[in-house]
Specification:
Elements lengths: L5 E7 L12 E6 L5 H9 L17 E6 L3 E5 L10 H17 L3 E9 L6 H12 L4 E6 L6 H16 L8 E3 L8 H12 L4
Parallel strand pairs: 2-4, 2-5, 5-6, 6-7
Antiparallel strand pairs: 1-3, 3-4
Length: 199
């Protein structure tokens, strides 16, 4: 898939305020500070399409970006905020759950995992939640440039053993780096297949 245009569409507080479901959507979500904004910018080849911040939990709304005029990339609030109140955290998690369960034009969700970390309970719980509700998803292991390929593969193997054992079908796994652009073509090819497009 070649991305010819990528534009910000709207931010939504909850499912009710999302834009009309007139085109297919692909969503991205991950634990706070996992590199989600950097990945979105990499896919679109735009430096500032999604806001990049060193402050965990910066994305607090459901952000929609229209790609090539015919599908949307959706940036979901990260789970595990460090800098907002417990009340807001519950609100945002509810909004994300409503979107993932109730958005009729959502085609796939990409869950981002920090490749440098051992399996985290919060990731395991979220993936279990997705699988239990039949939401199709893939895993994207981020920040692969910050360690050796051997370390990344070992981390993925641990994650598969701890988190994915017994999960059928097993999700597709991607390894990416916003710095080296690794994984960009593979993720876009996956999206093209999901959307049924050749380019």
């Amino acid at each position: 898939m070649k991305i010819k245009s990528a534009t910000f569409t709207v931010s939504a507080l909850n499912l009710k305020s999302c834009p009309a479901a007139i085109m297919p959507e692909v969503a991205f979500i991950g634990r706070s500070n996992v590199g989600k904004s950097s990945l979105i910018n990499l896919l679109a080849e735009q430096r500032n399409l999604a806001r990049v911040s060193d402050l965990p939990g910066k994305t607090q709304l459901i952000n929609f970006f229209t790609i090539n005029g015919n599908w949307r990339l959706v940036d979901l609030p990260g789970y595990g905020y460090a800098h907002i109140s417990q009340t807001k955290r519950a609100d945002f998690n509810e909004a994300v759950a409503d979107y993932l369960e109730g958005r009729e034009n959502l085609r796939h969700t990409f869950v981002l995992i920090d490749s440098r970390l051992p399996p985290q309970d919060i990731d395991r719980e979220f993936i279990s939640w997705l699988a239990g509700r039949g939401v199709p998803f893939a895993l994207v292991f981020t920040k692969a440039d910050k360690q050796s390929a051997t370390q990344t593969q070992a981390s993925i193997a641990r994650f598969q053993q701890v988190v994915l054992t017994g999960l059928h079908p097993a999700p597709t796994i991607f390894v990416c780096s916003a710095k080296t652009k690794a994984g960009r073509k593979e993720i876009l090819a996956c999206i093209a297949g999901i959307l049924g497009r050749r380019t």
